[in-house]
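User: Teach me something about this protein's shape.
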Amino acid sequence: MIPKIELKSSKEIKNYQDNKLNKLMAYLYKNSKYYKNLFIKNNINLNEINSINDLVKIPVTTKEQLHKYNEEFICVPKQKIIDYTTTSGTLGDPISIILTEKDLNMLAYNEAISFACAGINNNDIVQLSTTIDKQFMAGLAYFLGARKIGCGIIRTGAGSPELQWNSILKYSPTYLITVPSFLLKLIEYADKNNIDLNSCSIKNAICIGESIRNEKFSENELSKKIKSNWNIKLFSTYASTEMRAAFTECEYNKGGHHHPELLIIEVLDENDNPVKKGCPGELTITTIAVEGMPLLRFKTGDIIKTDSTKCKCGRNTFRLSPVIGRKNHMIKLKGTSIYPDMIYNVLNKFNEIHDYILELNSVVGSDQIIIKILSDSPSKMLSDKIILSLKANIKVSPIIKFIDKEKLNELQFPKLSRKKRKLIDNRNKEIILDCEHKE
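Assistant: First, the predicted structure itself:
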């Protein structure tokens, strides 16, 4: 189930996207109050935007702008809106994203080809271990995509290892769609209840929300910990509510595949210029298949790299690396720049650590990292061991605090939250990317 455009040459894909961009520009000028004002204010002549190479002539769109002028991005009358979705609310109040009937069909198409990329077909049964309510787009997308493929679906929702295993043992699903760290809780439950992991029906997991790869696509510590206990194939997938599309790995696990019929992709430095090939930068997207609320040069805040070498699966589209980190979550410590994911990767090595959350604070001249840890064996010896490992691997020395499960749950699941959080960022600072741009 590989779309024909993804097998075309790079030149053919570019020509396809050039044509889609021209149509999008005209559509936005006619229907989007926000973008029409942007074009007029910046003297942008639509006739001069003929190629994706011309996108640099247009100002980027930020999350702050989407938040502040939310309704001005809507391009359809109210009666055409079918679904009201919201983001997780990283700026305070969640951002609303609306979808029309056409958008919902496109969402189903995106997830169907993404799942097919990971090998799902109509003979499979998928256990959906993520919420589909609370205006959460991801769960809805997974459900629609699985329906389009025609496979069976078990909607267990997030949490409750007992419910997950009851469903696995009763219905024999072949794929789990879940946050990868939750697989560790399933492994723990299976061990305590004499369930043989490797004789159960689950052979694959689509991993959402957390990275399971390092930058060069090797397994990170979380992935290694899962697979050392469970002989299961893991597939990484990356998406966001705003892009309404996904990047999912194929069987070769060399990055999430780009769907050029859905998104135009740029990777930008701190000056909004394209980075050199292979250089990390901020993923910036233009939606070319969205009707209700299209976005033009929208900066996601996620730092990634692209890989344009041809994949063995036959697709000619480029692939995304795992997310290196969020731009606003970069940590500066005594001249060293790191991302929280680098810390997570070290913490995941420790079997003594059952769960954790990071807290970032601003102190004079630097950032402060506090790691709050849940462990059955809290001790100064364990604390020193963790600090020593972090110093050796990423040259940081955080403050370690041990807390109980109840307190950790309060921090990870604040009021009205839809998903578990691993980071509390109390800072307020602008981060600059270390990245060169093309000449």
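Now, about its shape. The longest helix spans residues 10-31. The CA atoms of residues 74 and 318 lie 30 Å apart. If you'd like, I can walk through any region in more detail.
User: That's plenty for now, thanks!
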